[in-house]
Every structure is written in structure tokens, then in C-alpha cells.
């Protein structure tokens, strides 16, 4: 029996994937090259802009934002102040700004792609049955795997980092948008229909407003996932706090690794609480 | 004039639709059909017509297909077969665009659980129909405010639905429908989620409204008492089929089959009338708050010459008359305390009307219906006698 199994020829899936990749890179190299160049330019400008703002002003702005976003409570504001001062003090400010750019871009791209995709899924059961397994695939595949096509398409640097992060962070927004819209009470959908709403009126005046808190929960997850890709993306040259962690790992510098990791944790907590507070504020 | 005409309309949910329709023709029951074909028959071969300005009630128990039927009229549910004509136009064959125009201009719907949008204020909810039609901001605001004013809820216009009681929410639901000025109102168990007294009040309001508006109303209910109160004609449904259509009188005196008969007998039993059944909404002043001028204004508005007097917890204190209130107002008194007359007859809500009849005959004032000292309603001689006489007539016609 074993003999039979051993005699079966190996399915050449790996070579197929490779030749598909080769085909894509050779035929669309100009396209990928343009994205790589313009993306890099844009992102480095944003990073420069963030670094250009005096750190103390940016910190104060974030603290004030945290104060008001959490309903004039001091908890998150104090944490943000101390946390950001600590990161600055450790000489990781530039890296933090680079990480911010990466998270910002991959989150925005994920949201811009994810919400329309989620809406499509909620409206069409066929779309749902196609997209759902794709999302499962994207979420269960180890994040590292995305680095390979990212490098093949875009070389190394921040652009492939964002590419890999988007693939990794996209699913929650898509899923939660779909869920949120499907959960709108039937009677309210009927009410919208019975008054003669067009599909887009129903979507923008009833469904999206009612699904908002669910969609926001998805966006929060997307932001957190794209942050978690920061360290992994540093393996293909994405700059930021992740690169510090990676360097420390490669040189077994426990102290440096710990400090950079702590910086990431602080950053994660701040953006998590901030995005959550935007959500709570909207819920009556 | 015929406004709505429904011809042989059926709705089957699921697959194997032709087979299921065939089985219905053979008068198989819903469960049999579900077992054999996996299809659920919502409505089978419904035909009726509704005249302009008529309140047409569709009555049946849950699962009888009445909610499906009303949704076929504006095609929230697509009919499987048959024709639905509104003003001679065939709704069931209409393009999406034409259907949208009909929904926007001709018919509005009121829902059992109100169907109000929780993220919109009452005003924004009331504006919804006008907003999606592209009516200008000023105009739709004016119309919506007028509709809320008519419902007595203008003061709450910037509140959100969840801040209001059920009765108030449904008034908004109705105001939203009326703001659109539709010719047809579809009311799907509109009052079923409300408690009995509010429900009765809303039924009265609907009847009052109908006096002036003369809309064509399709009203769904599972409550025969409600159907009898408000319906010009009533259709009774069972298992997706309409089994009798007629006026309340016709259905009570001449039930089409045993099923209808059991319904009607049920009504008779509940018509062992108590004070609660015959009481009307009390008109009252709050002695802790209102002065004689307010009292006079309210008497004018409600065209009564006598008001109940209650405190802020709605506990009955007595009554005041128009003459006393006028005198007090002339003397510029600020409260009505001095003119409240405490001598008023009170009865509990579950007291039988027969027993009240003697009391009310000798009483110069209406009788107050009171529970736990709180004023629930008022019994007026005319109403009590009318209620009793219709009851005994019905009892006789049954013997």
C-alpha cells in the first residue's frame, strides 16, 4: 500500500506557483516598479513629515486627542504621555514614526479595499461563498509566507512590508463589514425598502450607520493586525521598531530587544484604545 | 371606487414551487406540503378588493400568512403568481423603477415593532420618506414637523426612538408614514406590541384620523376585537388562505365555517363587559401643576364641561366643572385646588357593566375607573348603555 503511495508522481504545485510568480514579475515588472517607486516616495515623505514635527508637539497632540476621545478621562492620556516620552527617551522616536507610517498606510489600504468588499459580500451570497474561503486562507497562512511574493514583486523596503501587512490585516474589516450589514434588523431593511429607497440610499442612510460599530470593531482588529506584521515585515527591510527588534534578535542583544518590544507594546495599546474609543463614542 | 385589487395571488417559499401549488389545490395541509416538497405556502390564491377610503382588516393567527400577504402588496415579498392591481396598475409585473415610484408616492407602511431607525432622531425618522424622494430640506422639515405636531410629538423631535415609550414610537411610525402623504397605508400588526389601553387609544386615534384623511388602509391584526373595532370589512385567514371576507356584522352573525365560529365565540366570551372595556380616555388636570386657565383651555380642546382632577402621580382627587374654573380664572387664582369637588363615584376596572348601570343612572358626573387610587379611565353614560345594548343584541342573534 505504501508502495503505491510512494509511486505516485509528486504534484508539481510548488513549480507551478513559482512559474506563475515568474510570469507575473516579468510581465508586470513596470507596473510593480511604478508602485514600488511612488509608494516609497509617498511613504518616506509622510515619515519625514512626522519626524519634522517636533516630538514634544506631536506627543502633546496625541495626549490631548486621547483625553477627549476617551470622554475627558485621564487614564489613556497619562499612559500616552509617559509611554511616548519613554520611547523618545530610548532614542526610538524616528523608528516609531516609521512604524506609524507603515501601520497608517497598510490600515488605510485595508479599509479602502475591505469595506467595499464586505459590502459586496453582504449583498451577494455568491460573493460571500467565494470570498469567505479566501479570507480563511489569508488568515491561516503564516504571515511569513506573504513576504516571498512581496519581495518578488516589490524588492525590499517599506512597500513590500505594506503589501504583506495588507494581505494579513485585511480579513477582519471585510468580515465585520459583512456581518454588520447582515445583522441590521430585517424590519428596518423592510422599512427602508417600503419607502422606496434605492440600493445606495438604503446602504448609506440605514445599513452602514447601523453596522458602524461592528465595522469599527473590524477596523480596530485590522489596525492591530497590521501592527503585528511590523516585526515580520522588518525581515524584508521594512523600517521602524520592528527592525530594532529583529537586529537585537540577530545580535542576541536582550536589552535592546526588550526596549524596542516594549515600545511596540506601548504603541499598540495607544492605538488600540484610541480606535476603540472612536467606536464607543458613536454608539448611543 | 376600487383602489386595490388582488387576483389569485399565491406565495410559496422554497423549491418545488409548482408541485407545492398543485398540492394546495388538493387542499393538503401546510405541514403535509412541507413534508412532501420542502416548500412553505405563505399565501394561497388570495383574491379581494379594497375600496378607496376603506379600512380593510386582514385577520388571522400567527402563521396564517397575513404578514406575507401585506408584504406582497408592496412587493417586499415577490408574489409567486397572481396579479396585484393598484389604481389599475399591475404591481406584480412592474419594473423595479416603477415599483420604487409607487412605493415612494402611493403607499407607506407601519410596522409591528415600529421600524424606526435608531440612529435617527424622530424628526429625521419622519423625514425619511421625503428625504429619499429628494424633497428639499426646508419642505421636508416643514412636512415632517407638521406630521409630528399632529401626532402630538413635536416637542420630542430631536430625541431618539429608544428614549420614547412604545405608544409614542408607534405614533412616530404613523407620522412617518403620513408625512409622505400616501394614498394607501399598510399597517402590519401596528398596535400589537402596545399594551391594551394605549392600543385602544391608538385605535381611536386612527379612526379619528381616518375621518379627515380618508386613506385606504390595509390593517393586519391577530385580534378579532381590534378587527371589529376598526375594520370596515374584515378578511379572515387560515393557513395562507382567505376563508371569509365581510363586515364585522356579517362575520359575527354568519361565520363561514367552524374555524371562524370558534373565533367569534371567543369574542363573545370576552365580551362579558367590564368597566375597563367601556371606559374612555380621561380628560384631566393636574392639581399640582395646572391652573384654571389651563383647565378651561383643555375643556375647550376636548369639548367637555367637566375635568377629572389628579395629582402628579395620576391619583384621583375629584373633578372640576367649567363654571367653577371660569370663576376661578376671573379671580386670577393660580391653582385649581379650591374648586376641586371630591365627591365622585369610582369603580374598579374589573367591575361588570351591568352592575354599574344603576350607579351611572343616578350620577350627575361620569364615573371614574380607578385602580390603586390611580385614574385609568372614565365611564360615560351613553357609552356604557351603547356597549351593553350591542352586547345583548349580539347575544340574541346567536341564540
UniProtKB/TrEMBL annotation, chain A:
Xref: InterPro entries: MetI-like, MetI-like_sf
Alphabetical list of Pfam families matching this protein: BPD_transp_1
Subcellular location: Cell membrane; Membrane
The keyword Cell inner membrane is assigned to this record: no
Segments passing through the bilayer: 49-69, 76-96, 102-122, 143-170, 223-242, 254-271
CDD domains tied to this protein: TM_PBP2
Transport listed as a keyword: yes
Residue span, ABC transmembrane type-1 domain: 96-275
UniProt keyword annotations, A-Z: Cell membrane, Membrane, Transmembrane, Transmembrane helix, Transport
Membrane topology, as annotated: Multi-pass membrane protein
Entry similarity comment: Belongs to the binding-protein-dependent transport system permease family.
Protein name as annotated: Glycine/betaine ABC transporter
Organism: Lysinibacillus contaminans
UniProtKB/TrEMBL annotation, chain B:
Record's keyword annotation contains Methyltransferase: no
Signal sequence extent: none
Any Pfam family matching the protein: ABC_tran
Subunit structure: The complex is probably composed of two ATP-binding proteins, two transmembrane proteins and a solute-binding protein.
CDD domains (UniProt xref): ABC_Pro_Gly_Betaine
Keywords recorded for this protein, A-Z: Amino-acid transport, ATP-binding, CBS domain, Cell inner membrane, Cell membrane, Membrane, Nucleotide-binding, Transport
Residue ranges annotated for the ABC transporter domain, each copy included: 28-264
Gene3D superfamilies per record: CBS-domain, P-loop containing nucleotide triphosphate hydrolases
Record's catalysed reaction(s): a quaternary ammonium(out) + ATP + H2O = a quaternary ammonium(in) + ADP + phosphate + H(+)
Taxonomic path: Bacteria, Bacillati, Bacillota, Bacilli, Bacillales
InterPro entries: AAA+_ATPase (IPR003593), ABC_osmolyte_uptake_ATP-bind (IPR051921), ABC_transporter-like_ATP-bd (IPR003439), ABC_transporter-like_CS (IPR017871), CBS_dom (IPR000644), CBS_dom_sf (IPR046342), Gly-betaine_transp_ATP-bd (IPR005892), P-loop_NTPase (IPR027417)
UniProt source species: Lysinibacillus contaminans
Enzyme class: translocase
Protein name: Quaternary amine transport ATP-binding protein
GO MF annotation, one: ATP binding
Keyword Membrane on entry: yes
SUPFAM superfamilies (UniProt xref): CBS-domain pair, P-loop containing nucleoside triphosphate hydrolases
Family label: Belongs to the ABC transporter superfamily.
Location(s) in or outside the cell: Cell inner membrane
Membrane topology: Peripheral membrane protein
EC number assigned by the record: 7.6.2.9
Amino acid at each position: 500500500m505504501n508502495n503505491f503511495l510512494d509511486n505516485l508522481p509528486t504534484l508539481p504545485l510548488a513549480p507551478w506557483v513559482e512559474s506563475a510568480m515568474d510570469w507575473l514579475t516579468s510581465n508586470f515588472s513596470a507596473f510593480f516598479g511604478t508602485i514600488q517607486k511612488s509608494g516609497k516616495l509617498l511613504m518616506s515623505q509622510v515619515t519625514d513629515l512626522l519626524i519634522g514635527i517636533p516630538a514634544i508637539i506631536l506627543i502633546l497632540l496625541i495626549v490631548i486627542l486621547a483625553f477627549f476621545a476617551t470622554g475627558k478621562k485621564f487614564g489613556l492620556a497619562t499612559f500616552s504621555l509617559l509611554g511616548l516620552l519613554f520611547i523618545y527617551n530610548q532614542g526610538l522616536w524616528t523608528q516609531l514614526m516609521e512604524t506609524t507610517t507603515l501601520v497608517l498606510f497598510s490600515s488605510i489600504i485595508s479599509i479602502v479595499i475591505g469595506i467595499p468588499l464586505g459590502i459586496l459580500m453582504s449583498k451577494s451570497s455568491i460573493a460571500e461563498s467565494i470570498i469567505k474561503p479566501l479570507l480563511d486562507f489569508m488568515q491561516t497562512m503564516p504571515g511569513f509566507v506573504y513576504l516571498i511574493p512581496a519581495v518578488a514583486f516589490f524588492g525590499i523596503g517599506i512597500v513590500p512590508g505594506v503589501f504583506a501587512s495588507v494581505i494579513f490585516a485585511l480579513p477582519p474589516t471585510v468580515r465585520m463589514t459583512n456581518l454588520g450589514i447582515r445583522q441590521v434588523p430585517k424590519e428596518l431593511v423592510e422599512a427602508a425598502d417600503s419607502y422606496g429607497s434605492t440600493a445606495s440610499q438604503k446602504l448609506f442612510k440605514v445599513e452602514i450607520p447601523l453596522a458602524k460599530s461592528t465595522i469599527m470593531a473590524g477596523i480596530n482588529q485590522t489596525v492591530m493586525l497590521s501592527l503585528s506584521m511590523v516585526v515580520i515585515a522588518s525581515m524584508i527591510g521594512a523600517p521602524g521598531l520592528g527592525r530594532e527588534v529583529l537586529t537585537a534578535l540577530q545580535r542576541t542583544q536582550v536589552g535592546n530587544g526588550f526596549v524596542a518590544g516594549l515600545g511596540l507594546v506601548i504603541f499598540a495599546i495607544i492605538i488600540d484604545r484610541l480606535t476603540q474609543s472612536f467606536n464607543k463614542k458613536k454608539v448611543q | 371606487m376600487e383602489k386595490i385589487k388582488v387576483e389569485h395571488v399565491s406565495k410559496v417559499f422554497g423549491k418545488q414551487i409548482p408541485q407545492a401549488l398543485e398540492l394546495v389545490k388538493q387542499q393538503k395541509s401546510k405541514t403535509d406540503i412541507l413534508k412532501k416538497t420542502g416548500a412553505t405556502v405563505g399565501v394561497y390564491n388570495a383574491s379581494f378588493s379594497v375600496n378607496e377610503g376603506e379600512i380593510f382588516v386582514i385577520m388571522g393567527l400567527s402563521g396564517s400568512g397575513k404578514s406575507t400577504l401585506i408584504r406582497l402588496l408592496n412587493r417586499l415579498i415577490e408574489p409567486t403568481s397572481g396579479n396585484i392591481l393598484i389604481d389599475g396598475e399591475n404591481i406584480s409585473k412592474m419594473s423595479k423603477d416603477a415599483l420604487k415610484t409607487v412605493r415612494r408616492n402611493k403607499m407607506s407602511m407601519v410596522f409591528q415593532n415600529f421600524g424606526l431607525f435608531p440612529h435617527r432622531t424622530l424628526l429625521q425618522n419622519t423625514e425619511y420618506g421625503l428625504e429619499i424622494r429628494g424633497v428639499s430640506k426646508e419642505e421636508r422639515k416643514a412636512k415632517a414637523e407638521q406630521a409630528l405636531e399632529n401626532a402630538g410629538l413635536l416637542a420630542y423631535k430631536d430625541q431618539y426612538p429608544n428614549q420614547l415609550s412604545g405608544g409614542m414610537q408607534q405614533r412616530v411610525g404613523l407620522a412617518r408614514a403620513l408625512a409622505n402623504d400616501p394614498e394607501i397605508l399598510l399597517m402590519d400588526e401596528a398596535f400589537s406590541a402596545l399594551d391594551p389601553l394605549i392600543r385602544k387609544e391608538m385605535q381611536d386615534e386612527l379612526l379619528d384620523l381616518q375621518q379627515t384623511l380618508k386613506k385606504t388602509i390595509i390593517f393586519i391584526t391577530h385580534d378579532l376585537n381590534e378587527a371589529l373595532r376598526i375594520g370596515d370589512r374584515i378578511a379572515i385567514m387560515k393557513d395562507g388562505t382567505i376563508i371569509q371576507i365581510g363586515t364585522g356584522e356579517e362575520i359575527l352573525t354568519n361565520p363561514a365555517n367552524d374555524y371562524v365560529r370558534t373565533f367569534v365565540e371567543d369574542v363573545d366570551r370576552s365580551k362579558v363587559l367590564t368597566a375597563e372595556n367601556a371606559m374612555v380616555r380621561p380628560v384631566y388636570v393636574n392639581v399640582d401643576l395646572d391652573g384654571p386657565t389651563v383647565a378651561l383651555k383643555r375643556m375647550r380642546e376636548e369639548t367637555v364641561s367637566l375635568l377629572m382632577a389628579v395629582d402628579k402621580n395620576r391619583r384621583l382627587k375629584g373633578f372640576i366643572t367649567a363654571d367653577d374654573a371660569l370663576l376661578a380664572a376671573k379671580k386670577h387664582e393660580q391653582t385649581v385646588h379650591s374648586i376641586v369637588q371630591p365627591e365622585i363615584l369610582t369603580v374598579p376596572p374589573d367591575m361588570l357593566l351591568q352592575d354599574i348601570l344603576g350607579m351611572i343612572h343616578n350620577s350627575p358626573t361620569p364615573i371614574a375607573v380607578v385602580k390603586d387610587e390611580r385614574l385609568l379611565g372614565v365611564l360615560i353614560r351613553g357609552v356604557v348603555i351603547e356597549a351593553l345594548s350591542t352586547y345583548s343584541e349580539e347575544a340574541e342573534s346567536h341564540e
